[in-house]
Amino acid sequence: IGNTVLHILVLQPNKTFACHMYSLILSYDRSKEGPGSLELIPNNEGLSPFKLAGVEGNTVMFQYLMQKRKQNLWSFGPLSTVLYDITEIDSWAEDQSFLELIVSTKKREARQILDLTPVKELVSLKWNMYGRPYFCFLALFYILYMVCFTMCCVYRPLKPRPGNRTSSRDNTIYVQKMLQESYVAYEDELRLVGELITVIGAVVILVLEIPDILRVGAAKYFGQTILGGPFHIIVITYACMILVTMVMRLTSTTGEVVPMSFALVLGWCNVMYFARGFQMLGPFTIMIQKMIFGDLMRFCWLMAVVILGFASAFYIIFQTENPENLGQFYNYPMSLFTTFELFLTIIDGPANYDVDLPFMYSVVYFAFAIIAALLMLNLLIAMMGDTHWRVAHEQDELWRAQVVATTVMLERKLPRCLWPRSGICGREFGLGDRWYLRIEDRVDPNKHKMMRYTEAFKAQDRDNYDKGSEKLESNRDPLCKKELSALSLSRNTSRTSSHRGWEILRRNT
């Protein structure tokens, strides 16, 4: 019951009341330490009250709980050293990481915790010491891997076409070699080495991605933009296309160019994932993802309706015409592709002034130009501009969340020998097996001095009030009027002295 009440208090809108009640309940907890403590018992979702405060974005409760966990090591004037307990915060030994919970939640308030002590210092320490070097090395290794795959595709085994052309529009001069003919010369052996590297890399990608999908869940793993959801879809599809190409090569099946071309596009597009390691480029990948999976996906439904309608009309108009004079609409698939190019203004309206064109072509093309070029394209630009404006206001916050997600990902995938645990073990200071992060804080001397003045003036007012209360209690006889007037004079004098002190403090401020 006590643990349930603690979880309810974390969700309360009245933060001050929740903090006081939280302390009151913990004061009756018999097992304040160890696994039986109320603060360490998780709910049905596996969240302790501390993790629940982070997921809900309750910054007041989070700071309150962190103040209870900290240990003052020493202080000397404006300098002080504090040990913050990072047992539940650090993702090194946590199955359900506090940092991963913050970046995966949909509440924007939760990402504000990344700017609070000691989360900010812990993430900065992990990223600067291990995350950034490993991530840059991984980006360089992936680019070299993609260069190797691209060279294997460019120099894939081809041979001249043996038969004759069956149509005047047939333009094929090379065909794919059979498996027995593909690895004969020395150049083929070099290409074989690159192909083996490509296939091994695809297998490694699947081995690293599939356990995370099973642990987190497909919907959450692919749906979170900050966690790199779309890029995970891209890299898994790329690995599958590589394996399909390998099977088609081993079975001498024609048509390997289809999965190979898809793999090239997806593999090189995945390079944008590594832009999150740089503050200048990281927010732009967020913008691209939100535009593609937000604005562009909705716009594609409208675009598909317009293209289908007008492509069918163009095909019907030119169905009775000679395709050699205007071949852009000679069959239905070509009509769809030509209409798509016209929609995006990639090409101008096709016309052949040496022959008479149907009258309806001019009418339909006029309506298509008004609807597609003037109306719908400007609508898409306006939608993307609104998305850019919204993301630009929180780009720094989103980039920090990207850094946290990348750090947690690298920490989970790399061996423990390459990523030691951050912080200091509490046994060094007699604090048990918990881990702490030492943070040095420097207080502004002027602010420190004004705080001492404030406390001194408050103490003076409190002393004067206590003396006046004692005199009021000791004088209850009929002659108290005279003493009350003297007390009033004394209180006015003390208030005047205190008022002067407050005026000095106000002027200094």
TrEMBL record:
PANTHER family: TRANSIENT RECEPTOR POTENTIAL CATION CHANNEL SUBFAMILY V MEMBER 6, TRANSIENT RECEPTOR POTENTIAL ION CHANNEL PROTEIN. GO terms for biological process: calcium ion import across plasma membrane. Signal peptide: none annotated. This is TRPV5 protein. Pfam families: Ion_trans. It is a multi-pass membrane protein. Residues 136-394 form the Ion transport domain. The chain crosses the membrane at residues 134-158, 192-210, 231-251, 257-275, 296-318, 359-381. It comes from Illadopsis cleaveri (blackcap illadopsis). It comes from the Eukaryota. One of its GO terms (molecular function) is calcium channel activity. Keywords: ANK repeat, Membrane, Metal-binding, Phosphoprotein, Repeat, Transmembrane, Transmembrane helix. InterPro entries: Ankyrin_rpt-contain_sf, Ion_trans_dom, TRPV, TRPV5, TRPV5/TRPV6. Its main location: membrane. One of its GO terms (cellular component) is plasma membrane. It is found in: Membrane.
